[in-house]
Design a protein that fits this description.
- The chain is elongated, with a radius of gyration of 17 Å.
- Strands 1, 2, 3, 4, 5, 6 and 7 form a seven-stranded mixed β-sheet that branches.
- The chain has six helices and seven strands.
- It has one domain: Alpha-Beta Complex (Maf protein), CATH 3.90.950.
- It is an alpha/beta fold and about 200 residues long.
């Protein structure tokens, strides 16, 4: 059993997909947005802050925090503030390859274990009409980089190099390995020893 310090339905679904034994406690830690920091450092810092905030109230139960951003030409693209911002982001991403970075952190017994995972995503070309139509669906408005790879945006993505689940919001392979380093049992009674194989 562990605690997921996130209200993201996508992260919840990913952990359920692989049979994890967890509960959710949404972190209210303030996210750092310092543009002078390397994106890899920023996502790890935010993941740690989220996990540590929840760990104060979780007793001895380990906590998993995560933070995902889209990076293009060194610029971080978080969640758009409105439809115009979403159109601007998608206009920048279309026809190009960008990075999706997720920082993950386990807090267990006062110790912090963390890392950043990067995935390359190549967008195909999109017309202004296609971008406007996609934004009008409302799907991009609460997503880093203004798109959901597991949603309608899949039609615009030419290729992915790296972890698909990272682009959704949580790199499951890296989470499993980091849990091993932190001594966290992801599966509890659900896995019937799966975590130890």
């Amino acid at each position: 059993m562990f605690v997921l310090a996130s209200g993201s339905p996508r992260r919840k679904e990913l952990l359920q997909q692989i049979g994890c034994d967890f509960r959710i406690s949404v972190s209210h830690a303030e996210e750092a947005t310092d543009s002078s920091q390397l994106p890899e450092s920023l996502v790890v810092q935010n993941a740690c802050a989220k996990a540590l905030a929840v760990a104060k109230e979780s007793g001895d139960v380990p906590v998993l925090g995560a933070d995902t951003v889209v990076v293009l030409d060194g610029q971080i693209y978080g969640k758009p503030v409105d439809e115009g911002d979403a159109r601007r982001m998608l206009g920048a991403l279309e026809g190009r390859t960008h990075l999706v970075l997720t920082g993950i952190a386990f807090v267990r017994g006062g110790e912090v274990f963390s890392e950043a995972v990067a995935t390359e995503v190549k967008f195909g070309s999109m017309s202004e009409e296609e971008i406007a139509g996609y934004v009008a669906t409302g799907e991009p408005l609460d997503k880093a980089g203004a798109y959901a790879v597991q949603g309608r945006a899949a039609a615009f993505i030419e290729g992915i190099r790296g972890s698909y689940s990272n682009v959704v919001g949580l790199p499951l392979h890296a989470v499993r390995l980091l849990a091993g380093k932190a001594g966290v049992d992801l599966y509890g009674n659900h896995g019937e020893g799966f975590a130890g194989r």
